[in-house]
Amino acid sequence: MTSLFAFNLTEHRTLFVQLDALEAEVERAGETIARALEAGGKLLVCGNGGSAADSQHIAAELTGRFIRDRRPLAAIALTTDTSALTSIANDYAFDDVFARPVRALGRAGDVLLGISTSGNSANVLRAVDAARELGITSIGLLGRDGGALRTRCDQAIVVPSTTTARIQEAHILIGHTLCGLVEQKLGLA
Ligand SMILES: O=C(CO)[C@@H](O)[C@H](O)[C@H](O)[C@H](O)COP(=O)(O)O
Ligand SMILES: [Zn+2]
């Protein structure tokens, strides 16, 4: 019998050989984020569950450091403030937990990275809609068929898998690549 680890590894490998197809979208997203940071904008990142963890991970690579010692870069995960998350969910709706901070903190010229394996999380969709109203470029880091976010975001990177865990594994590879591209493009690598 195939072990679970062997099964997961096979599924992971099968997916990862298909990711070359995303090269142009990943490069474009890296360019968009780098140009926004260069112009004084910031990156806002949001997602649920494992994607909340990815949001924090990616933002931390930029405010802290990824590969090399360099100046801090402006990035905020909208998933870390439990007081804001609980009060917005309690007083308004869970679907508003990211949109409201986007309206509070976002400025034209910023970039919003919305991470969702289904592409259908309502709170990420609302954040993207708020971003559009404010002149903030939205990038969806998605999975499955990209869901509703595929067309609602200005740019979409869709990992072609239906397994949430495998999609998340690809997302963090892409997230790390975006951080590396930002460092390269800003001459900080
Ligand atoms: O990490 C996992 C599963 O691997 C879960 O926590 C998962 O992120 C949650 O079910 C999320 O709520 C899924 O949301 P989304 O990716 O569809 O937007
Ligand atoms: Zn997970």
TrEMBL record:
Keywords: Carbohydrate metabolism, Cytoplasm, Isomerase, Metal-binding, Zinc
Record carries keyword Phosphoprotein: no
Coiled coil residues, start to end: none
GO MF entries: carbohydrate derivative binding; D-sedoheptulose 7-phosphate isomerase activity; zinc ion binding
One GO biological process term: carbohydrate metabolic process
Amino acids binding Zn(2+): 57, 61, 168, 176
PROSITE patterns: SIS
Main location as per UniProt: cytoplasm
Documented EC number(s): 5.3.1.28
Pfam families hit by this protein: SIS_2
Pathway terms, separated by semicolons: Carbohydrate biosynthesis; D-glycero-D-manno-heptose 7-phosphate biosynthesis; D-glycero-alpha-D-manno-heptose 7-phosphate and D-glycero-beta-D-manno-heptose 7-phosphate from sedoheptulose 7-phosphate: step 1/1
Subcellular location per the Swiss-Prot or TrEMBL entry: Cytoplasm
Family affiliation: Belongs to the SIS family. GmhA subfamily.
Job description of the protein: Catalyzes the isomerization of sedoheptulose 7-phosphate in D-glycero-D-manno-heptose 7-phosphate.
Further details from the record: The reaction produces a racemic mixture of D-glycero-alpha-D-manno-heptose 7-phosphate and D-glycero-beta-D-manno-heptose 7-phosphate.
Name of the protein in question: Phosphoheptose isomerase
Gene: gmhA
